Amino acid sequence: MNANDLLSIVHDFESPIYVYDSEKIVSQYKRLTNAFKKVKQLRIHYAVKALSNISILKLLHAQGSAMDTVSIQEVMLALKAGVPADQIIFTPNGVSMKEIEHAMELGVQINIDNLSVLEQFGTKHPNTPVCIRINPHVMAGGNTNISVGHIDSKFGISIHQMPLLLRIVENTGMHINGIHMHTGSDILDVGVFLYAAEILFEQAKHFDRLEFIDFGSGFKVPYKEGDIETDIEELEEQLGERFNDFCASYGRDLTLAFEPGKFLVSEAGYFLTKVNVVKQTTSTVFAQVDSGFNHLIRPMLYGSQHEIENISNPSGKKRFYSVVGYICETDTFANNRMITEINEGDILAFRNAGAYCFSMASNYNSRYRPAEVLWHEGKAYLIRKREQFSDLIAHQVELDFAEASLKPA
């Protein structure tokens, strides 16, 4: 995609708007599968939480992707997108047994990360194959909020609790068919990933009916030109060979599974906003856009950096701007960022807006959530309509205080 394509989308569908490039999504999927082609059985579970639009799920499933889900609603979305139940893994955290049993009834792969739930489930459903999420006690990830494999994390069953886990499995006679980990997001050091993988291999030896080992994901993507990223090819050279060796020692070929979300869709996404006001203060020049953290919360929540380009004036002289939103709280997208000269009415493009951007959008300040467009084979397709006022009140129950029964005494 180029700037003219993005400007044409804003012209046709208005701003703010999310745009996704299908070609980039497909190329990222192929990069990962091609890297691990030496592994006999590979399965990619796309992390639905990253970007859950049903058209994106269909696009990835058409490439051969299975799905990683964390809620019963994501399970239902994946099924709606045509993904077979046996290609969906369900890895919730802290949900009710009712929700887990609902997923079981739908036929998806259950992944349990809690000893109490494991014992309850194994007692009631010992014949249902279950995967176990292990916490390897490895600190990894680009931010504490997205590091989920360390000792203080709420996720997974601690490796130090393996004796108790094994006792539950033995007492219930339950069928463990997979073992899983996810240490965090934005992992750069392949060595850290491999260290955690070795821990998982060691725990896998305790189970004799495994069908797969799921290594989660967390691959780092570049956020700006020259930025560093996870070396997928280096990871394959080391983990792929080690996995094949483990399968040989285990006695049969297992499936190697990954759960990428950001890796597949982040770089494919653009968030387009229009500049409402250019405001000069005593110390700062603010570019105030027609959006806020209600549409893109990651910079405020994680301190994430999204490259911002003025696609209305790409070759202009660069100046320092702070790009801010219209929410009635501080909602700063970028501080003192060098951007080509901005005028009111210009369109700013936020890059790397494919993952955890629209999926975390809200109606804060009673603002509408934006539309979504898929750029596919040179054409723009609307894949989510912009919300309207009727959407804001669709599920509200309006009381009539003129009625006698509701009048104050």
What do these coordinates show?
Specifically catalyzes the decarboxylation of meso-diaminopimelate (meso-DAP) to L-lysine. This protein has 409 residues and is α/β, with parallel strands linked by helices. The protein folds into two domains: 36-260, Alanine racemase (TIM Barrel, Alpha-Beta Barrel), CATH 3.20.20; 269-393, Lyase, Ornithine Decarboxylase, Chain A, domain 1 (Beta Barrel), CATH 2.40.37.10. The protein is built from twelve helices and 18 strands. The protein has helices spanning 3-13, 22-35, 54-62, 72-80, 97-106, 115-124, 162-172, 190-204, 232-250, 262-265, 298-302, 389-393; strands spanning 17-21, 42-47, 66-69, 88-90, 109-112, 130-135, 157-158, 176-180, 212-214, 255-258, 269-280, 285-289, 308-310, 318-324, 332-340, 347-350, 371-376, 379-384. The strands form two sheets. Strands 1, 11, 12, 13, 14, 15, 16, 17 and 18 form a nine-stranded mixed β-sheet that branches. Strand 4, helix 5 and strand 5 (109-112) form a beta-alpha-beta unit. Helix 6 packs parallel to helix 7 (162-172) and helix 8 packs parallel to helix 9. The longest helix is centred in the middle third of the chain and has 19 residues, at 232-250. The radius of gyration is 23 Å and the shape is globular. Mean pLDDT is 92; it is low at 140-150.
